[in-house]
Design brief:
Adenine-n6-DNA-methyltransferase TaqI, Chain A, domain 2, four-stranded antiparallel β-sheet, 22% strand, Restrct_endonuc_typeI_TRD, Type I restriction modification DNA specificity domain-containing protein, single chain, 385 residues, restriction system, alpha+beta, DNA binding, elongated, Type-I_RS_S_subunit, 11 helices
Length: 385
Amino acid sequence: MNKQVIKLKDICREPKLTSSDPLKDGYDKYIGLEHIDSNSLTLSRWGSVAQDKPSFTRVFKKGHILFGKRRPYLRKAAIASFDGVCSGDIIVLEANESVVDPELFPFLIHSNKVWSHAIKTSSGSLSPRTKFKDLGQVEFSLPDLVGQRMLADDLLNIQRNRTSVEQQVEATYQLISSLLQKTCGSLGKYSPTDNLDERCPKGSLVVRLKDVLVKVSRPVKLSDDSEYGTVVARRAFGGVEAREVILGKNIKVKSQFEIKEGDFLISKRQIVHGGCGVVPKSLSGSVVSNEYDVFNAKDGLDMSFFSWLVKTPRLRNYFFINSVGIHIEKMLFKTDNWLNMSVILPPITIQKTIAKSLNELDSFSRLQFGKIDHLEEIKTYLLSE
């Protein structure tokens, strides 16, 4: 298939329509950068001109591309689904349909090639911005309009598949949230005076965390020429992930401790943000500083179940009320106070059943994310051909 090299400035233009009185001219909706999601072509929200009275005068029409020129690394560009006005930090783009297929155009704008160029040509330290005249220099190798139509159809099918998978992920998250709340939501105290003993179900026990958790410490004597894997407990209960591998002589904090598979890690400075998780097998043998607390489960507690329990609102509050500090980013966790908190603990068989169900749902959602990544790889390949 023959292709020709075409610059972006030749496949689209920047219509500079304005309105000094949007409501009078029939524009009742507006778009700011906050209304555009990163890496999404779809607008899911907007503002009301009548209610918010924005000072925006730049007009866009249905079908135009709204391209965020401020902080282009956020990759914000979406197809307008209605007429309206928008922020001056948005470039309005209209396809030249005699040169480019209108269905293909949005995918070209959202390609890595465009974003890379936008980031490279943006100027300003605190809030870098790109310009249409700079974006216009991006070159595409495109077939004729018939070939473009075929490419657009492939990309639209990928987009539809991605949307379907994303809907599955969202439904799975809602199911996880519902199941977690139903099975574990009432196992912690909802107020300081809440008497857990009075509402403890038959077969369950009221225990303090220190009754079922044991703090472990495995000091490591660092060798200058040995390599050590390091980890991080991600915020928002994102789990424990690998960081860099460092030579012993380059580790600044010499007080390091080994972690093993199945340990429960708490980042004492990030726990108010959900910085905790269970160490996976792949990270067993890594090291952490004393900025982390490391725990094992005693008999009667399934650690996988516990990693879900701490995500419930009441147990998340336990982390917050047992941390001290004025600034949210500098609060320090008081481990001993936290360990004195009480919870209702179901029988171990029920714990394992709950954890198994939640883990299976989580694995399914992760599998769907893998499908999304694969679809994006195919899309990137098609656009680079």
